[in-house]
Design a protein that fits this description.
Number of helices: 12
Largest sheet: none
Number of domains: 1
Oligomer: single chain
Strand content: under 5%
Shape: globular
Helix content: over 70%
Order of helices and strands: HHHHHHHHHHHH
Radius of gyration: 26 Å
Length: 277
Amino acid sequence: MTQGKVSVANKSNDGSTAPPAPPSYEEATAGDFKEFVICSTCIATGQMLNEFCWDDLNVRRIFIRKVYAILTLQLSVTLAIVSLFTFCDPIKDYIQYYPGWYWAAYAVFFVTYLTLSCCAGPRRQFPWNLILLVIFTLSLSYMTGMLASYYNTKSVMICLGITVLVCLTVSVFSFQTKIDVTSCQGVLLVLCTSFFICGLVLAFILPFGHVPWMHTVFAGLGAILFSLFLAFDTQLLMGKKRYSISPEEYIFATLNIYMDIVYIFSFFLQMFGNQRE
């Protein structure tokens, strides 16, 4: 037995591969102990770990492609409804003459949004998750189209172009930057609080008189806030920052990014749009 142990020790000293030494107390208590364990495991089972990392990266890429494919369909439906409500005068007159459909769409939007956001069961269960997402998309598209119908065509097209440029810029920034937006929840909370207070003040002031600059400030704050939320949700989708979203939650990820884009367009329309006479 002793001779066998000596031979193993000599083999290690000759330069042959030996198992990694256990971590010291300083390594075990340091913040990079996780990296030490990963490196040790990689030395012991290198090829198996590489295959696992590749599979994980592949799952994340499939998840991102799935989210943006669904998002493209949602935005196409919304663009079609907004264009229909903007260019077709009979439909435009009808939806403005019957505002009750707007409040019905708002009720459907609110119920489906709460269901998809707060209930993990319907959000993950096929095909109910897609059915709820379709209903949610149609209701929010109707609300956005009705809002756009009160503005002239040129304003709607300009705001659509601005929204596309802003969303592309924010998305590219989120993919390329080293800044971790997911760790800035405090900033988003402050902006949300300011946005909420500004909205309450505006709701009490508007019935007693029109305040154009107050409405512009509210719309500008909303555009900035949801642009930051778009960067936040995009980095959650990537999964390379402090916080990430599970690949199983593709409906939730699509829901958040879609709402961010639609709200950005709505606030730009309120800022730069010219209402019809």
